[in-house]
Description:
Blueprint: E1 2-6, H1 14-25, E2 29-35, E3 54-57, E4 64-68, H2 72-83, E5 89-96, H3 108-118, E6 123-128, H4 133-152, E7 159-165, E8 174-176, E9 184-192, E10 198-206, H5 215-220, E11 224-230, H6 236-240
Parallel strand pairs: 1-2, 1-5, 2-4, 5-6, 6-7, 8-11
Antiparallel strand pairs: 3-4, 7-11, 9-10
Amino acid sequence: xxxxxxxxxxxxxxxxxxxxxxxxxxxxxxxxxxxxxxxxxxxxxxxxxxxxxxxxxxxxxxxxxxxxxxxxxxxxxxxxxxxxxxxxxxxxxxxxxxxxxxxxxxxxxxxxxxxxxxxxxxxxxxxxxxxxxxxxxxxxxxxxxxxxxxxxxxxxxxxxxxxxxxxxxxxxxxxxxxxxxxxxxxxxxxxxxxxxxxxxxxxxxxxxxxxxxxxxxxxxxxxxxxxxxxxxxxxxxxxxxxxxxx
Length: 246
């Protein structure tokens, strides 16, 4: 199958190299369309105020690879329109850091995959908690397995299979899990940059008290998780309840 691979950590990130190796070894023809640098937390944003700069680069195992001066969603959108229109699926990752729970709303990794899903293609996002090279390879192998299952049992239209690999050496298994609503203990630290301008830097961590048997809890127990995400965030009952109010 012809696969377009993207990410939000940049075209030369170790996670994308692992993903390309795994999918090429599985017999897929890989084209890489990824940001030219770090674009984490870009969600599904697009660049509309300036042209996108594109450079052809080398990524081992890929038929072609492009470094694009835009967001992850830009990369997939441009890739499917111009650089790799023959792509039959979109894979995004391997991201450094989980994209689980409500964090998926911020994730450029998930945003890239969702752009593929909105184009009508099978789409998968893969992330991991540990940055060790061997763990990247294990996460990429898990993505190949999950991708095969997704092709055998297609998702609903415009959906993404979101996969996360735990920090342990070997996952206990791959399990389906609902998303958790995450809460953070966080703050903005005030500072001044070299130009004398006031700055604010966001720092924080996940607050305790999470619910059991959801994705983050299962990841902490050593399981890889998978969740089907859909673009439609409509709360149908609440929307219907608006009828006649105005």
